[in-house]
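Lab meeting, item 3. Inverse folding demo.
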């Protein structure tokens, strides 16, 4: 299967940035991804801080659906325990209808105790709430009417409308960070969304998925099909030359990882090393189109990953720079991987 490329939106912005212009700019970037030839756009969900301004991915998804016709629209991810699952089922069914069946539904438990507290919830309940919420969403998307009686949610007989276009329901993806989640995904044949790790770590995660899938009785073909549809995030910025790309993307990238200094994502240490460390460890590819294409080819070969989610806007970069990067990627990088 030819590699696929998507655009990932988290929209972390420093206090000094104009958040209105950046939210509107992020919408413009996601719409431009279709014209550039990307296969999909993916929207993260966070609230309560400038770590992520997309508090409602369904609102952004609806705006993208209205302005595009081909590109798939994914959530990376929708945090199920923070919302009533029937509300989520109805909202995202509307997205599937508005987009004419282009929704990819990425789901997750969330990990921020502060975000949970802001909703009056405990993060310690995230797994149990997640499991009930997912069961309800799938019932709403596959049954004409249903009811539910659980520990957290009680729903009397209800008709869930509108119906989703994709059957039996939009494809499911899960943010797969922990070992437990990877094993759950493999057992349930749910595709994965992963942060970028070293090729060895990604291969180990893929192998764990295979083991859990086979142990649950899934066929090897079905497991490989789920893995080939999974995605891994990579920070990407393209400019005319390597020096310009690093000068533009380097400072906001380091700002972002200073903000995340105590979160061990991307196989990084708790402190924030210089940009060169991240480049050497393959967390970010900043350069000319040929440089970025070469690094992506090496990454795909070493990791076994087929689909790369390009995080094009790290740390609230100027919209014009990101739009140019998206255009250069579409014109000069994508053609090196497939005939588009």
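The presenter then showed the designed sequence:
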């Amino acid at each position: 299967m030819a590699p696929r490329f998507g655009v990932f939106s988290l929209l972390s912005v420093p206090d000094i940035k104009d958040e209105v212009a950046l939210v509107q700019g992020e919408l413009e970037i996601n719409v431009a991804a279709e014209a550039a030839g990307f296969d999909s756009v993916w929207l993260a969900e966070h609230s309560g801080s400038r770590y992520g301004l997309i508090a409602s991915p369904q609102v952004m998804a609806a705006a993208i659906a209205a302005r595009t016709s081909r590109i798939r629209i994914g959530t990376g991810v929708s945090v199920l325990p923070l919302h009533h699952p029937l509300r989520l089922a109805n909202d995202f069914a509307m997205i599937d209808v508005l987009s004419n069946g282009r929704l990819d539904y990425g789901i997750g438990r969330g990990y921020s105790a502060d975000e949970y507290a802001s909703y009056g919830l405990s993060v310690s309940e995230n797994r149990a709430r997640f499991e009930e919420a997912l069961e309800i969403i799938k019932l709403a998307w596959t049954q004409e009417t249903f009811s539910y009686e659980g520990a957290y949610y009680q729903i009397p007989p209800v008709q869930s409308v509108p119906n989703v276009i994709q059957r039996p329901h939009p494809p499911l993806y899960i943010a797969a960070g922990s070992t437990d989640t990877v094993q759950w995904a493999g057992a349930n044949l749910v595709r994965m969304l992963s942060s970028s790790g070293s090729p060895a770590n990604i291969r180990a995660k893929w192998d764990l998925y295979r083991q859990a899938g086979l142990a649950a009785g899934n066929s090897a073909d079905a497991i490989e099909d789920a893995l080939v549809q999974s995605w891994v995030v990579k920070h990407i910025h393209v400019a005319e030359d390597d020096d310009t790309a690093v000068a533009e993307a380097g400072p906001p990238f380091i700002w972002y990882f200073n903000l995340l200094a105590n979160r061990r994502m991307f196989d990084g240490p708790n402190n924030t090393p210089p940009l060169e460390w991240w480049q050497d460890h393959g967390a970010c590819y900043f350069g000319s189109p040929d440089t970025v294409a070469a690094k992506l080819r090496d990454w795909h070969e070493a990791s076994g990953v087929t689909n790369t989610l390009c995080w094009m806007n790290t740390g609230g970069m100027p919209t014009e720079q990101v739009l140019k990067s998206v255009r250069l990627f579409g014109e000069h990088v994508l053609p090196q991987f497939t005939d588009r």
